[in-house]
Amino acid sequence: MKAANSVFSALGTTVFTVMSALATEHGAINLGQGFPDDEGPDDVRAAAAKAIIDGPNQYPPMMGLPALRQAVATANKRFYGLDVDWQSEVMVTSGATEALNDCLTALLNPGDEAIIFEPAYDSYRPVIEAAGAKVVAIPLEPPHWSLPMEKLEAAFSDRTKLVLVNTPMNPIGKVFTKDELGRIAALMERHDAYAVCDEVYEHLVFSGHAHVPLMTLPGMRERCLRIGSAGKTFSLTGWKIGYITGPAPLMEVVAKTHQFVTFTTPPGLQAAVAYGLGKDDAYFAGLASSLEAKRDLLAKGLRAAGFDVLPADGTYFISADFRPLGFNGTDEEFCREITVKAKVAAIPLSAFYSSPGAPRHLARFCFCKQDAILEEASARLKAYAQGIAA
Ligand code: PMP
Ligand code: GLN
Prior knowledge:
By secondary structure, the protein is α/β, with parallel strands linked by helices. The protein is 43% helix and 14% strand.
């Protein structure tokens, strides 16, 4: 028999699914896969229920419901001062996962190069490679995760078609500064490259930091495809509603990929997200401040258990160095061990690297959970750590 596609045949099941299954098997608190353990805002869910009952429920327009495309354009203006034409510059997708696939396959040709920063979200590499392009990975190093500018400059060439910029960044909670984005922008201009901007955590940014879309920098408006996700903005990860904002000529091509991936996205959910994006400032500020308090709570618990906790300025995630606990194995071994023995699941950070030199001493913990769950997880990890030390 002929072999199936080489990129996807070589892949395992995603680490999120593997660790969630292990957590279920062992009855562990799941701080691995990133999803909130509440149901999301009542009013947004009520808007979906009403839209589904009232209809229409047949195929909506391929680009997305006008109400949602208008709401995305308005949100771009409201939060970032971007002027966006809702008809030609916004498209709705079935989650940011589809949006990433649409943008990458729309831009890449075989032989192109795509720069990513590692640790990187796990869908980037296979989608780039399946398009026949080459991944050029730039590893960021703990604990500061700063941009290695010399390596980045060396990575850019005229073969560079795009750079994938994920800010706020999963799994490390890094929020790119305007200065860092400016450096990336200068290289993009020098080498005539595009950016696919994964900004799903745009509203999950904590005190002292601000989300800056690369698209707002001079010269970047025509070069960036900016991706958002209602899953993160409304704590409704199961809904899988994403949206892309980009210049009309690129969006025309992106729409062609979307038409053969999903073609459309459930209209009732789109209507509810359109409503949600119009919520008042208190909603968006409250979302960030509630997650910031959860970050602080888990960071405190992890420190009390003996971890060295790294900074996390946004997203759902915090990473921690487990070596001070006296555990000498790899991060994969550590995450399996705490799932089985401490009954708390986490994700090994090396799962987000494919370049050599991945750190092997860090675990990613998800903090978008009820306070009592975070407290219980911290207590279990502390008891486990005391067991190692004893
Ligand atoms: N990008 C990043 C960085 C993510 O963490 C996620 C969350 N799964 C996604 C994209 C995909 O988002 P969605 O659930 O909207 O497909
Ligand atoms: N974004 C989520 C995370 O990083 C997982 C999404 C998924 O399971 N594919 O945990």
